[in-house]
Write a structure and sequence with these properties.
Porin, eleven-stranded mixed β-barrel, 12 strands, 10% helix
């Protein structure tokens, strides 16, 4: 187990340094969870953005609050996610979230659903998003997309490393961001 843990840390650091120029940013997540609740801390390279998220799990529901801080902008994001389907091959997880920004930035609701396929520990997903609220046209068209391809490494009985590439695009599929992400998760 100790060797796997060191390998995981090494892969995370080396991949971040080696590929930093190929991506707009790199995202690093650290998550600790139980059957009932979780906490996640996220940071980025080449960005001033960081967040902390608190989660509560109730059956197929996840209730969460995210505090997201960037240079010149602080966001509070309550959100509710429902696991509609999750088997060994596919998953569908609709979510509603409210993005409240301190200051003059417009607040809005975002409706998004993750549609994913799995093959063993590998997965691919697409997440279309609709925005509703101030400064947003409420026209039922998709405002942005996220697509992700990744792999989950089991590194211990209660620990896993998720490595992924995420592509973000506007409603016309024009790239707005792309990054390499890693999530180190412990479950107790």
């Amino acid at each position: 187990m100790f060797k796997k843990f060191l390998l995981t840390i090494g892969m995370t650091l080396l991949s971040g340094m080696a590929l930093a120029d190929d991506f707009d940013t790199n995202q690093f997540n650290f998550k600790v969870k139980t059957d009932d609740m979780g906490i996640e801390v996220r940071t980025y390279t080449n960005s001033s953005r960081d967040h902390i998220q608190l989660e509560k799990y109730v059956g197929d529901w996840e209730l969460a609050y995210r505090y997201d801080e960037q240079t010149g902008k602080t966001e509070h994001r309550p959100k509710i996610t429902y696991t509609l389907l999750n088997n060994e091959f596919v998953y569908i997880k609709p979510r509603v979230e409210y993005r409240y920004f301190e200051g003059t930035t417009d607040d809005y609701f975002r409706v998004r659903s993750q549609f994913g396929v799995k093959l063993g520990n590998a997965y691919a997903e697409i997440t279309p998003m609709l925005h509703y609220g101030q400064g947003v046209s409420d026209d039922m068209s998709i405002d942005e997309y996220q697509s992700k391809v990744g792999y989950n490494f089991d590194i211990a009985q209660n620990a896993k490393l998720n490595m992924f590439v995420q592509h973000e695009a506007d409603g016309d599929f024009n790239k707005t961001n792309m990054f390499l992400g890693t999530t180190l998760e412990f479950k107790f």
